[in-house]
C-alpha cells in the first residue's frame, strides 16, 4: 500500500463516512427485549396502560423512602412518581436510583434489580475523567508532533533525548 499524504486522507475520509453511516444505521434500530433494551420512562409515561406487565428500565430521584418512591422525568418534561415494590437497599431522599423490573398498575414497579447513586458521584466521575483526559492530552502533545509532509504523527526527538539522558 502506498504511504503518502493523499492515501492517508482518503483512508481517513472513508473511515469517517463508514462511522457516520453506522451511527445513522444504529439510530434506526428498535428496542428489542432479547437484547436487554427495555422501555423506559420516555416510552411508558404517556401510554402507561400499554406497558403494564412489561419489564422496564427506569431511573429517577428518590422523594420518599418508606416505601421507596422516586420521580421520573421524560425528555418532554413530564413527571411521574413511581413506587418501587420489593426494593432492597437503603436509599436516602435525593439519591438517584435505576430500577429494572415489571411495571404494575397504580404506578408501581416490582423490582428485579436496582442500584443507587448519590448525587455527588456523577460530578466526581466527570471531574476524574476530565483530569485524566487532560493528562493524556498533555502526554501526547509532549511526546508526539504532527508532520505535515507525511500527514502523520511522529515522536518528538527532544522528548526522546530527555528520556535517554534521564534513564541512560
UniProtKB/TrEMBL annotation:
This is Uncharacterized protein. Keywords: Membrane, Transmembrane, Transmembrane helix. The lineage of its organism: Archaea, Methanobacteriati, Methanobacteriota, Stenosarchaea group, Halobacteria. The chain crosses the membrane at residues 9-28, 123-141.
Amino acid at each position: 500500500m502506498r504511504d503518502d499524504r493523499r492515501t492517508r486522507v482518503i483512508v481517513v475520509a472513508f473511515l469517517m463516512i463508514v462511522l457516520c453511516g453506522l451511527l445513522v444505521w444504529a439510530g434506526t434500530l428498535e428496542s428489542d427485549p432479547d437484547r436487554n433494551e427495555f422501555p423506559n420512562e420516555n416510552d411508558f409515561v404517556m401510554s402507561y396502560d400499554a406497558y403494564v406487565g412489561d419489564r422496564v428500565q427506569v431511573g429517577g430521584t428518590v422523594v420518599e423512602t418508606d416505601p421507596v418512591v422516586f420521580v421520573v422525568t421524560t425528555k418532554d418534561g413530564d413527571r411521574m412518581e413511581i413506587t418501587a415494590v420489593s426494593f432492597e437497599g437503603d436509599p436516602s431522599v435525593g439519591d438517584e436510583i435505576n430500577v429494572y423490573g415489571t411495571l404494575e398498575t397504580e404506578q408501581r414497579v416490582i423490582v428485579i434489580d436496582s442500584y443507587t447513586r448519590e448525587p455527588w458521584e456523577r460530578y466526581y466521575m466527570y471531574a476524574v475523567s476530565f483530569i485524566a483526559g487532560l493528562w493524556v492530552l498533555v502526554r501526547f502533545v509532549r511526546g508526539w508532533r504532527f508532520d505535515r509532509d507525511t500527514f502523520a504523527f511522529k515522536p518528538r526527538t527532544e522528548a526522546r533525548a530527555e528520556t535517554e539522558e534521564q534513564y541512560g
